[in-house]
Amino acid sequence: MPDRNESGPLHGRVVAVTGGGRGVGRAVVLAAAAAGADVAIAHRESEAGAKSAAEEARALGVEADVHRCDVTERDQVFKFVAAAERRFGRVDGLVNNAGIMPESPFLETTAQEWDRVIATDLTAAFHASQAVLPGMLERGSGSIVNIASRLGQIGWPGVAHYASAKAGLIALAKSISREFGQRGVRANSVAPGVTNTDMGRAVMAGEVGRRRMAELPLGRFGEPAEVADCVVFLLSDASALLLGQTLNPNSGGLMP
Ligand code: NDP
């Protein structure tokens, strides 16, 4: 067994990640493992991606567990957290990452579609935060990171449900920080700009994508590993003074 990163910022911690089988979530799993954390990986359809992420994490010398968890199902979210606590004894960090962004013009958005997006992109973080908080409060420490979006800060046509949910995640992190900060639990958000994943590639493609990229101060879109670095920072003690804050790995596309 290789040696874990004992000087890593997450050494000795346990980090649970939703949607950890691909995209940003998978990158967060690997970055947390590289920083020394044991990882509990939840996936819905991307079982193979989650299992291979666990293998890669173990190759970094940490423990890794894989669970199927549809984040819209409260029971499944609680079972995921309970299984992680059983296996590792604790969950120190929660990353609310799973998300969907179906496009639908506002006037054509059905109530069902609205509810599905809010359930996945916002209510799931409520379930997972409620599941991890009792253990965190008992130990007097914990860090919750919500993966929001630049669109949650500016709104966007065709994805009002998504943008509203992402704005909600930012407010959720602030509210949790205000309610539990004095008991050792911090919650913050990461609001990426367009990032090179299945979700991001839809935006990156074609002439519109090229134009948007050229307008970015950095001149390029983000990679999942670059977003994951921000998440690891917020999970670690290096960000001890940050509560209810939002980091913006967005290539300079929005400077709030
Ligand atoms: P992907 O489309 O690549 O991945 C989506 C992830 O969400 C998958 O891991 C998927 O799991 C999971 N997921 C979706 N629905 C559910 C569900 N009901 N239950 C459990 N898991 C679910 O997207 P990204 O990796 O890019 O997105 C990750 C986060 O980053 C999202 O919250 C997204 O909004 C945010 N973000 C992404 C940006 C981008 O440009 N890529 C920009 C700003 C924010 P599975 O495959 O197992 O079904």
From TrEMBL:
<dbReference type="GO" id="GO:0032787">
    <property type="term" value="P:monocarboxylic acid metabolic process"/>
</dbReference>
<dbReference type="GO" id="GO:0016491">
    <property type="term" value="F:oxidoreductase activity"/>
</dbReference>
<dbReference type="InterPro" id="IPR050259">
    <property type="entry name" value="SDR"/>
</dbReference>
<dbReference type="InterPro" id="IPR002347">
    <property type="entry name" value="SDR_fam"/>
</dbReference>
<dbReference type="InterPro" id="IPR020904">
    <property type="entry name" value="Sc_DH/Rdtase_CS"/>
</dbReference>
<keyword id="KW-0560">Oxidoreductase</keyword>
<dbReference type="InterPro" id="IPR057326">
    <property type="entry name" value="KR_dom"/>
</dbReference>
<feature type="domain" description="Ketoreductase">
    <location>
        <begin position="13"/>
        <end position="230"/>
    </location>
</feature>
<protein>
    <submittedName>
        <fullName>SDR family oxidoreductase</fullName>
    </submittedName>
</protein>
<dbReference type="InterPro" id="IPR036291">
    <property type="entry name" value="NAD(P)-bd_dom_sf"/>
</dbReference>
<dbReference type="Pfam" id="PF13561">
    <property type="entry name" value="adh_short_C2"/>
</dbReference>
<comment type="similarity">
    <text>Belongs to the short-chain dehydrogenases/reductases (SDR) family.</text>
</comment>
